Amino acid sequence: MKFKGNPFKELSAGFRDFFRKRRISVCDAESRREKWHTHMSPMGIMLGLVSVIFIIFCIILMLVAYTPVLDYLPGYRTDASKSRETLIQNLIRIDSLERKMNDMLAYNESIILVMNGKTPTMRTVQNDSLRHDKSIVPPSRQDSLLRREMEGNGEYALSSSSDNSRRLRSGVNAVSPMEGIISERFNARSGLYGIRITGAPEAQVVAIADGTVVGNDWAPETGNMVTVQHNNGVISIYRQLSGTIVSKGQRIKANEVIGYAASGKEGNEVSTLEFELWGDGKPIDPESYILF
Questions:
Q1: Which stretches of 134-289 are assigned E, i.e. beta strand?
Q2: Domain spans, the chain
Q3: What are phi and psi of 57, to 5 degrees?
Q4: Are 230 and 196 in contact (CB under 8 A)?
Q5: What is the CB neighbour count within 10 angstroms for residue 119?
Q6: Which fold has domain 164-288?
Q7: Alpha-carbon dihedral of residues 54, 60, 66, 68, nearest 10 degrees?
């Protein structure tokens, strides 16, 4: 068997021919005149096609990864998988709401303990890696300084030797928190530690006496709630507010607006305010000290 030529030379010539540039032109079909031309090798054409395919692949990959484009493709995702993802998202939201609810309930329990003259405690966290005792809130230097300022004769003292403390106890300097009629009276045995006042819709709620706002919170059961610390250890609590215009730590005067009463569930014809008065950690009948 004889070869007409050297096969290696033919292969080398074909390889060099693959990299050799060709003239590619565009001509007019009627006049045969050249309109446009370029020089490109077969290897350049192949590299150009590979580059275009790679760019298109990257664009499709980004669309799939960062956009919900697959949701619009029929048959790609079933209704079961979509419902499962929606269920997981709802469970995450419910878990977050449950944690916030537990935090608010723990805060309300701590407020009740403080009003009863007891030390607030922290709830025990299960599966906690820390082994030291966290049941009692540890005292700090800042807490001691604040307590000394509030209980002493400083600028933010809660008690003073003036006649305001006696007036608040006797009801001379205390005003009604809202204009209206008393719908439910004080009854500690049934769990009502204050009174309920019914008035006009979105009625203004005012402070009964001078004091300091020590709480401005929200809870599902009580709505917006404002707690005011007065002289001589008296605390007034205003519940079921639709909105408040005071902030925690703010000093307020008697008859100063602190918020607005929320309308009842039956409509916007009336609004109800739950008002409580505490002294020395015990509930006080507001009608004994305030003229409504």
A1: 181-184, 194-199, 204-206, 211-219, 223-229, 234-244, 251-252, 257-263, 271-279, 282-284
A2: 7-66, 164-288
A3: -65, -45
A4: no
A5: 10
A6: Glucose Permease (Domain IIA) (2.70.70)
A7: -170
Output the CA–CA distances (angstroms, integers) from residue 166 to 137, 212, 227, 263, in the order listed.
Answer: 34, 18, 21, 35
Q: Which two structure tokens, joined as six digits, stand for 213?
A: 């706002």
Q: Indicate the pairing of strand 257-263 with strand 234-244.
A: antiparallel
Q: Are 197 and 275 a contacting pair, CB within 8 Å?
A: yes
What is the Cα–Cα distance from 145 to 156, expressed in whole angstroms? Answer: 12
- Residue 235 CB contacts under 8 Å (≥ 6 apart), including other chains: 115, 214, 227, 228, 229, 277, 278, 279
267: left (phi over 0), alpha (psi -120 to 50) or beta: left
Which residues are CB-neighbours of 171 under 8 A, at least 6 positions away?
288, 289, 290, 291
Q: Give the CA angle between residues 49, 55, 57 to the nearest 5°.
A: 100
0.70 exceeded by pTM: no
- What are the pLDDT digits (tens) for 48-101? 899 999 999 999 888 888 887 777 777 666 665 667 777 787 888 888 788 888
**CA 16 – CA 9 distance, rounded (Å):** 11
Contact (CB, 8 A) for 219 and 239: no
DSSP state of 284: E
How far apart are alpha carbons 277 and 51 in whole angstroms? 78
Phi, psi for 225 (deg, rounded to 5): -135, 135
